[in-house]
Amino acid sequence: MSLAQLLVPFLEIMIITVMLNYLLGFFWNTRAMDLVFGILAFLALYALARWLHFPVLQTLMLNVVNVAVLAVLIIFQPELRIALSRLSVKGRKYREVTEFDRFLENICQSVYRLAERRIGAIIILENQDSLEEYAQKAVLLNAGFSSELLESIFTTTTPLHDGAVIIREMTIISAATILPLADDMTQLAKSMGTRHRAALGISQTTDALAIVVSEETGRVSVAREGIMTRGVRVDRFKGILRSIFTPPKMKTQTRLTLMEWLRQ
Questions:
Q1: What residue spans in the chain does CATH classification 3.40.1700.10 cover?
Q2: What pLDDT, in 10s, does the model give residues 167-181?
Q3: Would the pTM count as exceeding 0.70?
Q4: Which of 47-51, 93-97, 136-140 is the least confident region?
Q5: Per-residue DSSP letters for 165-192?
Q6: What's the average model confidence in pLDDT over 28-40?
Q7: Helix axis angle, 234-244 relative to 77-91, nearest 10°?
Q8: Domain covering 100-250 in this structure, CATH number
């Protein structure tokens, strides 16, 4: 037996281990985790059916798989899109560090400093849908983003700490913002309060990303497209930010290119 033949099984085991570790790390503490356990149970049952030579059960399970794959792609499309986006982001290791990169990094550092100190916070990052109607009813700031300003707003001794902060591109638009509350509470644990309900509510009506820091547990949660993800770790948080938001200059360049193409 050659050296290559000996190495193949070990390489396969390593690759499978890395893949499983990535999948479990991504789906942990999300609604998709139940799906992962369900798939593992299904595979165990299928292996048992083959071992016991139950041909009818095997055929039935294979037919179920054909339908289940399509259902999973539809139901868990948001999670799968974010997962694929994270893969593409992690591949770009040698990008030029821009002002927008530093902005996203500063948001990340501020959020996890607040979490470490267990200071409750709700931060809304505007995307394509305008949040102007909510900002106009709040305390307007229109201040350039800084970590110090963001963290000081949520300090319990300030009068602005009780509502949400809305950020548009690299500007803090408003503070003490009142948001619509989610009606469906099934995604929220008993330990989650008004901040989590407001974050879920705004994510159900707009395409904004809502970030919540729990003052009770210090855990960071994000809400996007009506889905609340709890206990988000810092590396995953960065991936989510970069997969959703594009630098302002890049957006402008894309629009100009499209206009030039239409003129041709």
A1: 100-250
A2: 998 899 999 999 988
A3: no
A4: 93-97
A5: EEEETTEEEEEEE--PPPS--TTS-TT-
A6: 66
A7: 100
A8: 3.40.1700.10
